[in-house]
Amino acid sequence: MGVPLISSPPFLTLFLFSFMTLCLSPQHALASITRHYKFDIKLQNVTRLCQTKSIVTVNGQFPGPRIVAREGDQLLIKVINHVQNNISVHWHGIRQLRTGWADGPAYVTQCPIQTGHSYVYNFTIVGQRGTLWWHAHISWLRSTVYGPLIILPKLGVPYPFTKPYKAVPIIFGEWWNADPEAVISQALQTGGGPNVSDAYTLNGLPGPLYNCSAKDAFKLKVEAGKTYLLRLINAALNDELFFSIANHTLKVVEADAVYVKPFETHTILIAPGQTTNVLLKTKPSFPNATFFLTARPYVTGLGTFDNSTVAGILVYEFPPNTKTLKMKKLPLFKPNLPALNDTSFATKFNDKLRSLNNARFPANVPQKVDKHFFFTVGLGTNPCSQHNRTCQGPNGTMFAASINNISFAMPNTALLQSHFSSQSNGVYTPDFPTNPIIPFNYTGAPPNDTMVSNGTKLVVLQFNTSVELVMQDTSILGAESHPLHLHGFNFFVVGQGFGNFDRNKDPAKFNLVDPVERNTVGVPSGGWVAIRFLADNPGVWFMHCHLEIHTSWGLKMAWVVLDGKLPNQKLLPPPADLPKC
Q1: Start-end ranges of CATH 2.60.40.420 in the chain?
Q2: pTM for the whole structure
Q3: Has residue 420 got a pLDDT over 50?
């Protein structure tokens, strides 16, 4: 029957206990809680598509357990590694104000947790409420190590929309029959593209459209005449997804844990890393039917992809005092999803997303800009590293990806530790280019030379710098949509368009009043997106494409935000149990 809005679900096999502390506000006392969770990273046999395999999980659960907290709560999450893989966990979308040590990307804010070791992620949720998620942040382990992170409003604070009867997380994933670690290892060794997934999943289940999966279907059980809040999370590794429920309308009310101006739609577009909250108003009476909820990819690149559809079933509870009909005898309706390459729908959907921008939830868009950045994002190549052999990338090369033609080389130690201890020499250089080194016609005929440069270069920002960043897709090895995720910040999406960004004309069309605020945004295929944010969070913050293969190929970089002058503007010191490399 879904998940109660306030209580943690009963199936959480976590050690969860709380200490009440009192925070006094001028109006009334609000209770904030310290919530303790325990994540045991362990192997678990799981069967999907008629094949059983051992996967890395949290507490033996797939998907992993849900974390439930309130705005203002402190979270202490102890992660204990019982597997042979190194592990780290990222709390996707949490601002981590001054607590960058808890952000989680391996070799950026921490060294990974090694076998037999543990680490306590300690952070407080400040000024955020809504649907976020957590996932492993090393190699491709997030294919099975992920789960919802649900932040409820403070006690007594209402939603800015109709209070739902129940809330239900729906998390999209990708399933490989093979070991995803072997898939990416082979791709990086040969220089070619990775083998695509065998199925998409809804809450870990592939559903009846796949072989051998009729019983492995997520069922969304609802009552007639009620309003449900669906917390949609795209945890797929490499695919943006269209999602729809047959014969039902969805009302979008939140994106990336920020309320938006509500609008109705039959289909949602959601990129890897993004979350979307929608209201589902059920039929006023029992409809004598069941309905598919389905998702399939939105595809813009030239590479191979998993061209399949995941389905769950929307099931209405039978009315009381009626003879129970067999569900198999009820007609089953299927939704009509957009075409796989429907960029027109994708553009129109994203254009509808607007911040509430009211007195309770203002959109604090930076109106002045201290630093302008222009980053190209796209694919490229590296020379074949296999002596006397041909690699499987374009023309015998190895696939790569880059920002401003720099493919990011991960260091062997954590960037944040190097920055904090002022020992960056030999780890990184602070000279990431603010613009492409060699300008070209970014969306026109691609240049003959597709080689990238490789390095560990960072951007350094003074505290409270207001930043405008334009990210431009390129046509090198094919134009493609890139969902870019920035750690440590939300940003405002002030503009987007197709073709090459025009510095003289396009800024005049920016929306500086009510742009959507989020943490992950799609750079349009063959186009550009402009974002603004305030660098008010000291630390080292990763930014990368959330298509995991592109991150593996180097489409990533990091920002250093220096401490401010006041005590509450400085990065806190590292915890004693911070993992060592």
Answers
A1: 31-157, 161-355, 371-569
A2: 0.95
A3: yes
The second-level CATH assignment, the architecture, of 371-569 is Sandwich (2.60)
Q: Alpha-carbon distance 506 to 314, whole Å?
A: 44
What are the pLDDT digits (tens) for 75-90?
999 999 999 999 999 9
Q: Is 380 helix (H, G, I), strand (E, B) or coil?
A: strand
Residues 175 and 48: beta-carbon distance below 8 Å: yes
Provide the 3-class DSSP secondary structure of residue 189.
helix
Q: Which CATH architecture has domain 31-157?
A: Sandwich (2.60)
pLDDT in tens, 496-528: 999 999 999 999 999 999 999 999 999 999 999
The CATH classification number of 161-355 equals: 2.60.40.420
User: For residue 21, what are the CA distances in angstroms to 18, 30, 31, 106, 227?
Assistant: 9, 9, 6, 33, 33
Answer left, alpha or beta for residue 474, where phi above 0 means left and psi between -120 and 50 means alpha.
beta
pLDDT > 60? residue 7:
no
Cα Rg of the chain (Å, integer): 23
3-state helix, strand and coil shares in percent for the chain, rounded to the nearest 5: 10, 40, 50
